[in-house]
Each structure stands twice: as C-alpha cells, then as structure tokens.
Design brief:
The structure holds two protein chains of two kinds.
Chain A: E1 38-49, E2 52-63, E3 67-71, H1 78-85, E4 93-98, E5 102-103, H2 109-115, E6 117-120, H3 132-139, H4 146-151, H5 156-168, H6 184-197, E7 202-206, H7 214-227, E8 232-236, H8 240-246, E9 250-254, E10 257-262, H9 264-269, H10 271-278
Parallel strand pairs in A: 3-8, 3-9, 6-7, 7-8
Antiparallel strand pairs in A: 1-2, 1-4, 4-5, 9-10
Chain B: H1 10-15, H2 20-43, H3 54-79, H4 87-105, H5 118-122, H6 138-162, H7 167-186, E1 198-199, E2 203-204, E3 207-208, H8 212-238, H9 240-250, H10 252-257, H11 262-288, E4 290-291, H12 298-311, H13 317-336, H14 341-355, H15 359-373, H16 383-387
Antiparallel strand pairs in B: 1-4, 2-3
The chains are: A alpha/beta, B mainly alpha.
The structure holds adenosine-5'-triphosphate and magnesium ion.
The site of adenosine-5'-triphosphate has 11 residues of chain A, from helix 1.
C-alpha cells in the first residue's frame, strides 16, 4: 500500500501552509490556525468522576502532521482523553485548543467533527444495519444538515471517492453487505475508512488494531504511516509491536497524567515506566 | 444508494420511492376508494349483495385514518428508535382543530339556536374566546390542523431532544404530556367543550355531513392521504435523511462524531410525524362525528404503538396492516366480547414483542426467504429482512 492508493485528502488544504506565513495571516472564524505547527494543545486537563480523577492535570501537545502513540496501563485515562478532545466529556478544569484559535471545550461533538477531528472508538462502532457502502457514504465530508440530507443525491465524484476508500480498506467486494456481518478486523477497517471519508485533519484512533490478525495489523500500520504528514494522528495502543512499527514519539499516560514521553526505546528504558507496567 | 444523475427533478424522485408493484397496489387501492366505493355505496340498492353499508364506510374510513397515524408512528419509532406514547395527542389536536370549524358550521341549528356553539351557551359565555376567532373559515381550520400540533411537537421535541432524553424516559414524558393535555381539555373553562368535546356536527363546507355523498368523499380523501403518507414516508426512509435517522437509532454517538447533529434530525421526523397524525385526526372527526378528550387518553397512544408492533416496525406497510388487523379485531370484539378486548390486546402485544420482532411483515418476509432460500445459499439473511424494508 502506498500513498498513491490513498483517496484524495486535504493535502492541498491552504490551512497546512499557513504555518509559513508567520506574520500577519488572516483567519476566517473557525479556520484552523497552525501557525505554530501545533495542531492540538491539552493544558492542565482534569476530569473527575465522583471524586475519582480519570485525568489529572494532563498536558499534551501534538504537532501538525505528527503520528503520536499513547500507551499506558488500563484505566490510565487514554479513552477519557479522547472523550475530552471530541466533546463527549467536558473537563472540570483546563483547556483544549485545536490549532491556535479553536477552543474545543466550547463546541459540541458534531461541531468538533466539522472542525476536522475524526475518532475511532475503542469498540468498533459502525452502522451495523447499513451496508458497507452506506457507512462510508454517511461519513463522507459534506453538508450534514437536515435539509441537505433530505434532497441529497450521490454524484459520481462522491461515488468514486467511496470506491477508492473501499479499495483502500479492502472491502470492495463487501460493499453491499450489511456492516454487521463483517469480521471484527473488517469492522475496524470500515471504521477507519469512515474516518478517512470525513477528511479529518486530526485522527484519534483508540486501539485500532485490537482483534486484528498480525497481517491486518501490519497493513494498518502501513496505512497510518502513509497518512502521517498530511494528517495528524493520535493512536492509543497496547500492542507494542504495532507501536514500534509506527515509530513516532510515544507518550505514556498513567493515572491521568503524562508519565514519560520520547521514542519507544527511551520510554521503555524509563525506570518509572517499567515500574508502572511491572507493578501491576 | 448508487451514483445517480444529479439533476433528477424532485417529483420524479418522489415518484420513484414506490417501485412498479407499489404503484400498482396504490393504483388499485385508489381505484377502489375513488370509484368502487362510491359506486357500491351510492349506486347499488341497499339490498344488493355488493352494496357497501354506511357502517362499513365509516369503519374502514376510520381505520384509514388510524393507518396514517401508524405510518407516522413507524417513522419515529421504527426508523428513529424513539417510542412515543403520546401520539394520540397530535391526532386529537388535529381533530379538535378541524372540529372547531365543524362546530361553527352548525350555525344556528344547535339546541340553543345561538351563533355560539352549544357548550358555550351552556357555560353562559357571551362571545367566542380569542382562539376561536377565524374558526368559521375552512382554510383557517386547515391551517390550525397543520400548524398547532406541529408547533407543540416542535417545542416539546426541541427541549426533550436537546436534553438528550431517550428511551423509556422519553416515552414516559410523552405519556405525561398527553395525559396533562387530556386533563386540560376535560375542563369546561378550557373552551373545547369539556368532557363532551365536540359533536352533533351538521355540515362541512355547506354539505350535510352525514350525507352518503359526503361520506364517500371523506373516505376517498382518507385513502389518498394514506397513499400520500406512505409515499412521503417511503421517500424519507430511502433518502440520505432516512439513512442518518436509522444510524442515529443504531449508534447515535457515532453519528455525532461524524458530524451530524441528531437534534435536528429527530426534531424534523418528530414534528413531521405529529403533523401526519394531526391530518389523520382532522379526517377522522367528520367521519366518526365526535371528538372528545378521551382521544388523548394514555391507552389510545399505547394502542398506536401496538398497531405498529403487530404489523412490523420499520416496514411502513406493516403498520398499515397492523392498524387494520387490530382495529378490525377490536370492532369485532367490542360487539361480541367487549370485556375481553383489553386482554386480547395485551396478549397480542406480548406475542408480537416476543415472537414477532418485525410483526406480521417480518414473519412473511422470513417465510418467503425460507421458501426461496431452499436452493440458494443459506446463512446470510437477505438484506431486506435484516433492514426491514417491505414491498
Ligand atoms: N463515565 C465514567 N464514570 C466513571 N468512571 C469512569 C468513566 N469513564 C471512565 N472512568 C474511569 O476513568 C478511568 C480511566 O478510564 P479510561 O477509559 O480513560 O482508561 P483507558 O486508559 O482508556 O483504559 P483501557 O486501556 O482499559 O481502555 C478508569 O478508571 C475508568 O473506570
Ligand atoms: Mg480505553
């Protein structure tokens, strides 16, 4: 799989060049400002559930185009962090900025999705009673208001885009099957395909290769690597071989805050990280 | 949906919502309602074996209205996953809206020979309350029927859906809503005739309301309204809107995270559903000749859900069948064994819920699939069964 297989994404999006115009660039409201080459800032985020701190003064930045892996033991707060970024959970304290200007804590889930953040859930979440094709169609980046949906027709460009994504996630022959009938690994891929159809700038992937065969895992890794650069990716994973394949910077979460950050070798050599993982 | 020529006129796309068989059946049904019924009722002598009695026309006309309500309920429940146990309210409001006009059409032919409706004279009111202004106009009545229930549904739905009230909680508050409305309408001071409601209608657009000619026209209108409702509903569920709606039913958070706001989708289908019920109510009242607050009772709304469950949720045609089956059974029971009707209804609901998740339509589709599937590869259910898409 190489970059040429990829569906057209927002590689030509002007947002990505705005970093070069350090001075005096003009932003439209709601436009992503990447002038400091950072796409996501989490600052001092605290989330408590009945007094229990799932996130505890968590601070984290993700660079534009970066592929970041987040690891950490069960209950470290990885999923909760994604809930905060995507608007599902409101933090008790702290701020989340998308680029320089967009405060995500003020937006609803659909608004955040429109800003360009896509999310894959830990448990594959697809529309089981819709066909594979329809799943991709619904996810496709377009005007998603009621009035448009009432009269929407699928033009051939959109059809082509769906066909390309189907090929990329190897579900072309399953296009007309109900998504609920796919294997677990195929469902994971379908959800990734839906994410790509959204053309997000930032992809949040919660345990994307859980339940996949080794071969599927490897191919998923190749796909993510080909996406990095044009998209920013945050991947939560327990599978260390997969994290190693992805290569990028690794952040270790523990008890709701960052324990260590660096290359996989560095964090694996970190004494505190070893304790957290062995001490369980 | 597959890529299609982008610029197909809407009316053509709407028409394409029925397949050839759907149009054939609709055509047959329309011919029955528009030609056969008038001929058999008006032209044939009463002792002719093919003569249709007033009783028959009133009963079937009434059930046609119920069938519209059932389809409206299927849109919101079967496709949207939102169980309303207060849909009787919108039906009743449509009935009251049109009933106001029918009351004014009585003119001075009431028992008190007053310009005011009898119940107002009885309450010693001297003039019409403000909300009765304009009610002598047919067009105003139509407007009331279309706008008032829709507005109430919209406001109620907005707050309920915005607060993300779901499932059984939503069902309960819809019940509370219709119950509260019933108590309100029971009061004489509310201005809608108290517990007697509206009755003793005389005319509609100047024509005597019980005349056979009027009856067959109302019957035909109900039949056309049902076909129109089915066509609209079928268009909706086959559109992208419909796919988003079922997606919200199955995985709402996924829908939000791909950028749809479920609030407006739910609100649209909810309000539309209420409007369809109101239209049905407006057609119902002149045919049965009465509307009173008992139409808003909780039991009535639950019955609507039972029609849909028995016929088959998420199939559109199923609820029509369900409305007919249950109401024909009801009219038989209430004559032969009135005391057993509620037991029968309860049993029916339990059986349908436990053994017929998609009602009689689902049963029929499964039997057909089994018959056809003998030779073909078994294992995977045909998409039509799993998606619940009927004819
Ligand atoms: N809605 C909630 N209510 C109460 N506690 C919660 C809630 N959501 C998460 N938690 C708790 O917060 C902590 C962090 O959970 P989270 O799901 O973020 O962990 P995680 O790092 O994703 O773990 P895993 O690797 O198992 O997916 C856990 O102890 C969990 O029990
Ligand atoms: Mg998790």
């Amino acid at each position: 799989m190489n970059a040429a297989d990829l569906p057209p994404t927002n590689g030509d999006n002007p947002d990505w060049d705005s970093g070069t115009a350090e001075l005096g660039h003009i932003l439209k409201p709601g436009q992503l400002d990447l002038s400091h080459k950072v796409i996501l800032y989490l600052d001092d985020i605290t989330v408590s559930f009945d007094g229990f701190r799932a996130l505890n003064k968590l601070s984290l930045t993700i660079d534009a185009g970066e592929l970041r892996c987040i690891i950490g033991p069960n209950g470290a707060g990885k999923t909760t962090m994604m809930d905060v970024i995507t608007g599902k959970t409101r933090p008790d304290e702290g701020t989340v900025f998308f680029g320089q200007t967009i405060d995500l804590t003020r937006l609803s889930e659909p608004e955040i999705a429109h800003m360009g953040i896509g999310r894959k859930f830990q448990k594959p979440t697809i529309f089981e009673n819709h066909t594979v094709f329809e799943n991709l169609e619904l996810a496709m980046k377009t005007d998603k208001r009621v009035w448009r949906s009432l009269f929407a027709t699928l033009d051939s460009a959109a059809g082509d885009r769906i066909a390309e994504t189907l090929q990329l996630i190897r579900l072309t022959t399953d296009a007309d099957r109900l998504a609920g009938l796919l294997s677990h690994g195929q469902k994971q891929w379908l959800e990734i395909g839906m994410l790509l159809m959204q053309e997000p700038k930032l992809l949040l992937l919660d345990e994307p290769v859980a339940g996949m065969t080794d071969e599927e895992t490897e191919r998923t890794g190749e796909l993510f690597l080909s996406l990095a650069g044009r998209h920013s990716l945050v991947v939560v994973e327990h599978d260390m071989a997969f994290v190693k394949q992805l290569g990028g910077k690794v952040t270790v979460l523990h008890e709701g805050s960052v324990l260590a950050e660096g290359s996989l070798e560095e964090v694996q050599a970190d004494q505190r990280v070893i304790e957290v993982y062995l001490g369980r | 949906m597959r890529p299609s020529p982008a610029r197909t006129p809407f009316i053509v796309r709407l028409g394409a919502s029925f397949d050839a068989r759907g149009w054939r059946l609709s055509g047959l049904f329309a011919a029955f309602a528009l030609i056969a019924v008038p001929v058999m009722h008006l032209a044939l002598p009463a002792d002719h074996p093919l003569h249709l009695s007033t009783w028959f026309i009133t009963l079937v006309g009434k059930i046609l209205c119920y069938a519209i309500v059932a389809v409206a309920m299927d849109l919101i429940w079967g496709y949207g996953g939102i169980l309303s146990l207060g849909h009787g309210l919108f039906f009743a409001l449509g009935g009251y809206g049109f009933g106001m006009y029918l009351m004014r059409q009585i003119g001075r032919d009431g028992s008190y020979q007053s310009d005011l409706p009898d119940f107002m004279v009885f309450l010693d009111w001297k003039e019409l309350p403000w909300f009765w202004v304009g009610s002598d106009s047919f067009l105003w009545a139509v407007l009331l029927v279309l706008v008032v229930p829709a507005l109430i549904a919209f406001v109620f739905g907005y707050f309920a859906f915005r607060s993300r009230i779901k499932g059984v909680y939503f069902s309960i508050i819809t019940q509370a809503l219709t119950y509260a409305a019933m108590l309100l309408f029971f009061r004489n001071e509310t201005g809608f005739g108290g517990n007697n409601g509206f009755t003793d209608f005389k005319r509609i657009l100047g024509h005597p309301i019980t005349a056979p000619e009027t009856r067959v026209v109302l019957f035909a209108l109900s039949a056309l309204a049902l076909i129109g409702t089915l066509l609209l509903a079928r268009y909706l569920v086959r559109s992208k809107f419909g796919r988003v709606l079922t997606a919200i039913r199955d995985a709402e958070s996924r829908v939000m995270f791909i950028g749809y706001n479920p609030l407006w989708y739910k609100l649209f289908v909810w309000t539309l559903s209420a409007m369809l019920c109101a239209v049905a109510g407006a057609l119902y009242v002149p045919q049965v000749g009465i509307i009173n607050p008992s139409e808003m009772s909780v039991g009535n709304s639950i019955e609507i859900a039972i029609w849909v469950a028995v016929g088959g949720r998420g199939t559109l045609i199923g609820p029509v069948i369900g409305a007919f089956l249950v109401n024909l059974a009801k009219s038989w029971f209430t004559v032969s064994f009135p005391e057993y009707w509620l037991f029968f209804l309860g049993t029916l609901f339990i059986v349908a819920t436990l053994y017929l998740p998609q009602g009689v339509v689902g049963l029929w589709l499964r039997l057909r699939a089994r018959r056809r599937g003998k030779g073909a590869a078994a294992g995977e259910p045909p998409a039509a069964v799993a998606k619940g898409v009927g004819a």
